[in-house]
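Duplicate of #3305? Posting structure anyway:
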């Protein structure tokens, strides 16, 4: 199909604005990201192409980023594809959860633990995600990624995974010849043709899903060593970033004096580990970006050049859930397959204290549909801000970052620490 003139103009404008979309991991919580994208698609003209120059995804976010890349000609069609899949998810589409498989897996783990190991027969992961391999193999046309790049609908796609051998975070990217590889401390970017193996490696949550071999190395979930999740998009040329996170930043209150302090269940600890895995890198990277932006705002042109290259001010719009996703997950416990429900109950994940783990693994349609609605409603509540950002208007929030609720508390009292002595700077020049 020949692109229309309107599509060509819209695609050129998107590339000129150099907007990057960052989709962090989050398991089943990724449905929230689909809801935000659905709202954005409705706010843009119906036949608009992909509005992002760079798509960067990790774990579940990698799958959504890849689908957007393969359908970049018409953004709304790509989002509709995502919604159809996420709104109709069942656990058995992601991992084998029938009673026989669950029982066999439990017995194998138990036998391996009490016998000191089973050699080559040792279990590789808690869950078998072969159904997800089959689902993505049938639905994602990886050849279309290069077509989108060649036709100008996309600049680059990045998928991040963690190498078990090299102990490095590797961002595999597919882009134009102008996009170059990079090497930093424990992270690097490598050009390649994105395949199903890259996606499955990026979502291979440690212990839960099996590692995946890419080349001469086995890889696991990209969030494990991704201390700087904004980095791939910036390395690939993004100058503005839309980040769709999946964690509400509300902190649970601690027990008061004299109140019982419950011992954390395995489910609570496992949920805490996944939360740290998926979310802490993003919080730290946003903090660093804020510091850099606050410093650059004091410099001419808001740009700093040196042997390291060019450091420019980066506007960012952050979308986060307005409600606690753990509470939503708790209402859909009954949708789980019986065998999986039994397993989750055994590790203490079916009550509120363990609902964090459940919120990442509950791939059931009632839950994912509510998250899609939540993402849609949250985005529509900020539609003026979202449209302004996509049109290239400067972010007016302090530090150039809007939507990260922690910022006002974290930085309103610290600005004097970051304030540049302009007289001293002028004398140094």
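Output from current build:
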């Amino acid at each position: 199909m020949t692109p229309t003139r309107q599509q060509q103009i819209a695609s050129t404008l998107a590339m000129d604005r150099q907007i990057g979309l960052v989709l962090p991991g989050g398991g089943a919580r990724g449905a929230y990201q689909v809801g935000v994208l659905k709202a954005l698609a409705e706010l843009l003209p119906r036949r608009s192409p992909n509005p992002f120059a760079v798509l960067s995804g990790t774990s579940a976010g990698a799958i959504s980023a890849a689908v957007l890349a393969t359908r970049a000609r018409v953004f709304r069609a790509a989002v509709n594809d995502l919604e159809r899949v996420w709104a109709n998810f069942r656990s058995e589409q992601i991992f084998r959860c029938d009673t026989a498989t669950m029982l066999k897996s439990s017995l194998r783990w138990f036998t391996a633990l009490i016998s000191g190991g089973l050699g080559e027969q040792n279990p590789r992961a808690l869950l078998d995600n072969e159904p997800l391999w089959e689902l993505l193999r049938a639905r994602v046309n990886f050849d279309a990624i290069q077509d989108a790049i060649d036709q100008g609908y996309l600049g680059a796609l990045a998928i991040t995974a963690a190498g078990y051998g090299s102990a490095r975070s590797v961002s595999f990217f597919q882009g134009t010849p102008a996009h170059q590889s990079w090497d930093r401390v424990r992270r690097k970017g490598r050009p390649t043709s994105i395949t199903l193996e890259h996606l499955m490696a990026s979502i291979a949550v440690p212990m839960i899903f099996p590692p995946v071999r890419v080349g001469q190395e086995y890889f696991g979930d990209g969030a494990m060593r991704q201390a700087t999740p904004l980095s791939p998009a910036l390395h690939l040329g993004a100058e503005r970033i839309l980040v769709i996170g999946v964690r509400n930043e509300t902190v649970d209150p601690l027990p008061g004096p004299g109140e019982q302090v419950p011992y954390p269940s395995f489910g609570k600890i496992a949920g805490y580990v996944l939360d740290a895995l998926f979310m802490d890198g993003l919080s730290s990277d946003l903090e660093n970006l804020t510091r850099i932006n606050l410093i650059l705002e004091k410099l001419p042109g808001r740009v700093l050049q040196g042997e390291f290259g060019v450091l420019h001010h980066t506007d960012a719009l952050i979308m986060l859930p307005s409600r606690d996703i753990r509470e939503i997950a708790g209402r859909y416990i009954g949708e789980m397959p019986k065998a999986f429900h039994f397993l989750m109950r055994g590790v203490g994940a079916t009550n509120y204290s363990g609902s964090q783990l459940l919120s990442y693994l509950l791939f059931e349609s009632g839950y994912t549909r509510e998250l899609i609605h939540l993402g849609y409603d949250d985005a529509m509540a900020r539609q003026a801000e979202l449209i302004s950002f996509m049109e290239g208007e400067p972010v007016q929030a302090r530090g150039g970052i809007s939507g990260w609720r922690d910022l006002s508390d974290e930085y309103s009292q610290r600005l004097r620490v970051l304030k540049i002595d302009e007289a001293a700077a002028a004398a140094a020049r």
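Confirmed duplicate; merging threads. The mean pLDDT is 83. The CA atoms of residues 43 and 387 lie 7 Å apart.
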